[in-house]
């Protein structure tokens, strides 16, 4: 049966169906709704969700999970990527063993 979802809810649902095990984020429009949806549906799917203290920490937690072999998602607003830049750049040469998706949204995405 078809389900009507907003864009951020669809991102969360896609992540759940793809088998994520860890989701982190720093609150901020327009990305907050992704984590809100994951916190609502994630626990029954066995997903660890966390609001992080900033975007860098969110990336580091998700990257650590992905490096350990889990699928992970981190969501943030566009300007938050500046805060997480050091952690993201380190991933370019460290890599991950699981899967890691960075959902970086701007107001134009919604």
TrEMBL record:
Sorted alphabetically, the Gene Ontology BP terms of this entry are: response to oxidative stress
Concerning InterPro entries, the annotation shows: Pyruvate:ferred/Flavod_OxRd, Pyrv_Fd/Flavodoxin_OxRdtase_N, THDP-binding
Answer whether the UniProt record assigns the keyword Oxidoreductase to this protein.
yes
Q: What positions belong to coiled-coil segments? A: none
Keyword terms, alphabetized: Oxidoreductase
Give GO MF terms, alphabetically: oxidoreductase activity
UniProt protein name: Pyruvate flavodoxin/ferredoxin oxidoreductase pyrimidine binding domain-containing protein
- Give the species this sequence originates from: Neomoorella glycerini
């Amino acid at each position: 049966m078809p389900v009507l979802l907003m864009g951020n809810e669809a991102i969360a649902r896609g992540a759940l169906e793809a088998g994520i095990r860890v989701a982190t984020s720093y609150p901020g429009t327009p990305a907050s709704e992704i984590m809100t949806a994951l916190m609502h549906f994630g626990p029954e799917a066995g997903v660890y969700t966390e609001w992080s203290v900033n975007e860098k920490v969110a990336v580091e937690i998700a990257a650590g999970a992905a490096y350990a072999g889990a699928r992970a998602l981190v969501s943030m607003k566009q300007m938050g990527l500046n805060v997480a830049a050091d952690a993201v750049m380190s991933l370019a040469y460290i890599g991950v063993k699981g899967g890691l998706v960075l959902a970086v949204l701007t107001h134009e995405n919604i």
